[in-house]
Design a protein that fits this description.
The longest helix is centred in the C-terminal third of the chain and has 24 residues. This protein starts with a helix and ends with a helix. The chain is globular, with a radius of gyration of 15 Å. The N terminus is likely disordered. 36% of the residues lie in helices and 20% in strands. The protein is of the alpha/beta class. GO terms for molecular function: protein disulfide isomerase activity. Belongs to the protein disulfide isomerase family. Pfam families: Thioredoxin (PF00085).
């Protein structure tokens, strides 16, 4: 894809938001910043699409505090292209749920804290139930 320099620069700083559902128990959910080595990187404030999300990610992290085993993460696809390629992120922002390193759902609903919280909680519960069924089988 051949893009004009300005468009390419905007794409390079675009953010793909990723929801990670982890197994390790945590004292509370928080917004975590990851690197290519650990899966993602920081948001770039120059991207208008992601900037328009405002504090959505931080607000979601606060609301999810106390929800054991759930982490909220983000990846900058301009910096961590291999990560975005690995998890099939090609448009921004993208909201996904991962459980034990596997994608279990992609969010396409309203971009508000309550909707995202419900989605993440529901998907985490489904993934946990599926894991228990596998163990008991």
């Amino acid at each position: 894809m051949d893009l004009a320099p300005g468009r390419r620069a905007r794409l390079l700083v675009a953010l793909a938001l990723v929801v990670l559902v982890a197994l390790a128990a945590r004292s509370g959910a928080e917004v975590i910043t990851l690197t290519e080595e650990t899966f993602s990187d920081k948001i770039k404030e120059k991207d208008t699409v992601c900037k328009n999300l405002g504090t959505l990610w931080e607000d979601l992290g606060k609301v999810m505090e106390g929800a054991d085993e759930i982490e909220i993460g983000q990846v900058d696809c301009g910096v961590s292209k291999p990560v975005c390629s690995k998890v099939d992120i090609h448009s921004y922002p993208t909201f996904k749920v991962f459980y034990e390193g596997e994608e279990v759902a992609k969010y396409k609903g309203p971009r508000n804290v309550e909707s995202l919280k419900n989605f993440v909680s529901d998907e985490a519960e489904k993934a946990g139930e599926a894991k228990l069924q596998d163990i008991n089988a």
